[in-house]
Design goal:
Blueprint lengths: L3 E4 L9 E5 L4 H10 L4 E4 L3 H10 L4 E4 L9 E2 L2 H4 L8 E5 L3 H7 L5 E5 L4 H9 L7 E4 L7 H14 L7 H8 L2 H7 L10 H5 L7 E8 L2 E8 L4
Parallel strand pairs: 1-8, 2-7, 2-8, 3-6, 4-5, 4-6
Antiparallel strand pairs: 3-10, 7-9, 9-10
Helix pairs in contact: 5-6, 6-7
Length: 227
């Protein structure tokens, strides 16, 4: 099956099935948030919208890229999020690339958000769908981020049911520009363990499906049976 790999600027029309990839770090963080008890993640288009949603819904928490800021409860770092307790909470997430990509395809019949930590479950979920080729939205660096492209290609290969070795794809991600920037501390709001946490293949046993719920785009975990 011929899948499509596009950057956000290259999106035209509405794909039948979209898988939005952000390895470092939005959709690694989203998976960790679900593992820490978050019930659902609302994707916001701007930081102002994220804060407005939090203010109008008591009990919701908000997360952003970069350094901590007033009104936000967390930053976009798996290392900083992994010890938090968000049991039963709704998280509003706004990031530079991942949430932008997901909102760009929010009207597609099926939208999944993914990274290496949910790559296998995402591939297995897609195997149950009968919707034709998948459009993989590579969110980083205008569609050129090698960590995102490597993850997209890995999921695409896993969908075929073949036995795929993860190491070459993880190696590409480890040597990417984003990984170098995180390792060197050139991105604010990061933790020294972020790169390694982003490269934990199949850490979690769920896929993450985004759907429209009233006027919001909401991401939820969907359990996927092990092979």
């Amino acid at each position: 099956m011929d899948h499509h790999f596009v950057g956000i600027p290259e999106l035209t029309g509405v794909p039948r099935i979209a898988v939005v990839i952000d390895v470092m770090r939005a959709f690694t963080v989203a998976a960790w948030a679900f593992s820490r008890g978050v019930e659902r993640i609302v994707l916001a288009s701007t930081e102002s919208e994220a804060l407005a949603l939090k203010e109008s819904h008591p009990g919701w928490v908000a997360l952003k890229d970069g350094a901590p800021a007033p009104g936000f409860d967390a930053v976009n770092s798996p290392g900083l999020l992994r010890s938090r307790d968000f049991a039963g909470r709704t998280l509003v997430q706004k990031t530079t690339a991942g949430t932008v990509g997901a909102l760009a395809v929010a009207n597609a019949p099926l939208v999944l958000c993914a990274s290496f930590v949910v790559a296998g479950p995402t591939a297995r979920f897609l195997q149950t769908q009968d919707g034709g080729p998948v459009t993989f939205v590579v969110t980083g660096e205008g569609g050129q981020a090698d960590e995102d492209l490597a993850c997209a290609e890995y999921i695409g290969r896993r969908m075929s049911g073949a036995d795929v070795e993860a190491a070459p794809y993880l190696r590409r991600a480890r040597t990417s520009r984003a990984a170098a920037d995180l390792a060197a501390g050139r991105r604010s709001g990061c933790h020294p363990d972020d790169v390694e946490l982003c490269l934990e293949i199949d850490r979690f046993s769920f896929a993450m499906v985004a759907r429209r719920e009233e006027s919001l785009t909401v991401l939820r975990p969907v359990a996927v049976r092990s092979p």
